[in-house]
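ok so for the tutorial part 2 we go from a plain amino acid sequence to predicted structure tokens. step 1 is just haveing the sequence, like this:
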Amino acid sequence: MLGSPRIDLLLTLIQFNVFRALVTNTSALGFTTAWMDAEAESPFNTPNPGYDINLSCPVHLRPTALQRAIEHHPWIDLFPIPELRDNILRLGDSYDDTPLCIQMLEFCDIPHEKTGLIAWGDPWDPSGWEISEEFLRKWPWVLNGCHELFRSTNLWREKRGENKLFVGY
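step 2 — the prediction. this is what the tokens look like for a chain of 169 residues:
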């Protein structure tokens, strides 16, 4: 009677895909769940005798120079868009990262218009990710220079018959 797939479950599926992608990237980086604790620090910039980056780690997940230089929480390391990670790190403590983290990572209780990121393809491949219009409006500085993400967002939107978000990509 309700049909399949049900439209009211679509947001849950989108959120699940993002969650699945981030768990996959956590594993690809060789992180443990302990590194997702609220007080955790990225192993990329702290002496961590129990951590060595996996040499087979996908190239887009490998740490940037800023990730190695600036102390930060490991949630930032999970996204396969190096420019996005660096943009977040450049602002340091000059903004409240909790709302950003919630919009990028939360799995439950986020209304559709506030969904930030969508993962469609391989979690470690930037071409499998899309940003929402709401995310672009709220966090434009996070996206500075994220050309691969601009292209992939436009591609996924065009596949659904929606207008491009980024002109020229």
